[in-house]
């Protein structure tokens, strides 16, 4: 046992000596190219080499001490608490948890990640067969987590800036129901589904914004969509407000506290379950109409949103951005160009 330890210690000494000699040679090579340093003695070169190693060890020690002080799970929770949308929180937590697991398997902490290792992480995601959209979500979530950490710790930098292995964005062309199909789906829907579809068709609102929707006295509506307040500038038509009335819904908060039974589940009044049940109801309704030969595909609420954007694209990017509740003109332009395949150069 003692003999084995001596062999190990001898190997470690040899490694240190080789590393020290390499560093000395490197410094001597650099000094030869810099006129002011050409007259360095071997003792001075050794001193610089030693100081360089000490500085590196000090930097490594600072990283290790910081890593030991940080509770990464608490930091992750603080990061998620900044997100307004529950869906965003779930997606980002899944991505960052996956990343922390990847680091743990490599016996690293987030502080240890370099841009090169960030590229390795991206390649590992792609190597597991995750599609481009999922890969991009994971990378965006982890990069956002590092940006959050940067604000809290001076020693941390986001290693995902400038990474080379990011997958390219993939966009699915929207399948849009025709005017006739929209009319058939709405006319044959049950009263609550009909009212919801009419609101989405007329406003382009996301289905997730229905439950929190408030109709103001002037007919305009305000809601929360993807965690942010969205004020729709146009009043609802009398036809839509009549459909809301005929469905027995509240004129001011039509889709709040509504019970919809989803197959296999009891009725629930939570906004998320209401939205999920409403989506399921539309899918079942569409499938029945397909069997009857009245429509071509199983359409979703998002397809109705696409139909709204397509119908009003000629009104311009600003007009659409304000109705769709998107964050910027650039987002609207990318959406029109990639999802609806519209030429946005003249818009």
Give the spatial strand order of the biggest sheet. 1-2-3
Q: Tell how many strands the DSSP assignment holds.
A: 3
Ends apart, CA distance between termini: 78 Å
Based on helices, strands and strand pairing, what is the structural class?
A: mainly alpha
Helical residue percent? 55-70%
Which descriptors would you attach to this protein?
347 residues; mainly alpha; three-stranded antiparallel sheet; 13 helices; 3 strands; 59% helix
In words, what does this structure look like?
Helix content is 59%, strand content 3%. The chain contains 13 helices and three strands. Strand 2 and strand 3 form a beta hairpin. The protein has helices at 2-33, 42-69, 72-81, 86-105, 115-127, 132-152, 179-187, 191-203, 238-246, 271-291, 301-312, 317-324, 329-338, and strands at residues 214-215, 221-225, 228-232. The longest helix has 32 residues, at 2-33. Helix 12 (317-324) crosses helix 13. It starts with a helix and ends in a 9-residue tail after the last helix.
